[in-house]
Amino acid sequence: MMSGEIVTDHDVLTPEQIRSDPMYNEVLYPFGFQWFAGVGFWAESAAWALTLQRTGREGSFEARDKRLLARLAPRLTETATLATAVGRVALTSMTNVLNQVQQPALVLNRRGMVLSTNAAADAGFDDDIRISNRRLMVRDKSALAKLDQLVDLIRSTPDSHALPAAPIPVRRTAKPPVVIRVLPIDGAARNVFLGARAMLTLSNLLPRPGPDPGLIAEAFDLTPAESRLAALLASGMSIDGVAERLRISRETVRNHLRSVFSKTGIHRQSELISLVSQLI
């Protein structure tokens, strides 16, 4: 249907077809309805139709009714387009907030198709995790099966119901695994015309930033040399790698490390990595 177009039973079916059509006999008649009219309108570039039902006693929609309904179409288009625009702004605000903290996120509509992504997600997509034909695709077969289950759940669950979806770990070929979590869409972003149904966050999609030596020094009262050492070890570098990077001897590295242990109250390199990682 085009915007402003009014369609009734008589426009698409003959009386004989109406009498034999399963839609009337199995759906409308049992609930007391007999006649319908559809009003075409737009929500941005998407075509919609508002259908109205009448009982047999009320009678079918006639030419006068169609003229009155045609006056309703522009108002429906204005309302639907405004609701879509407001929802899109609300949705963009949600994903942009996550983008500010480098949290990749994307939004799925009620058909499970990707509606939008933020810049952090776009920067992290690769051959292991990508968008193809508006679908989120992953190379990990186990994770892909769980994503398919999530899409089935989105399609079959009413918009007003929460999605009981567990986090989905995604293994990657040469990078750390990603964890996909499902968040609800609320407020203005959740409207029938926009169709946003769920927000997915992708933890660990992007490389984590290394710890800030200045922050480490301030937090644990370390010298600049000690804080640089702690930052490099926390980023996964070995003792030999630290020595080479800082151009100091292995023994000097160990002396700095003992001093760091003393000041932080820990005794193992693994404990240091865990402690510093809390500052990232």
UniProtKB/TrEMBL annotation:
Domain HTH luxR-type: 215-280
Family annotation (Pfam families): GerE
Any GO MF annotation of the entry: DNA binding
Transmembrane segments: none
GO biological process: regulation of DNA-templated transcription
InterPro entries registered for this protein in UniProt: Sig_transdc_resp-reg_C-effctor, Tscrpt_reg_LuxR_C, WH-like_DNA-bd_sf
SMART domains: HTH_LUXR (SM00421)
Keyword field: DNA-binding, Transcription, Transcription regulation
Listed PANTHER family: DNA-BINDING TRANSCRIPTIONAL ACTIVATOR DEVR_DOSR
Name of the featured protein: Transcriptional regulator, LuxR family
Taxonomic source organism: Bradyrhizobium vignae
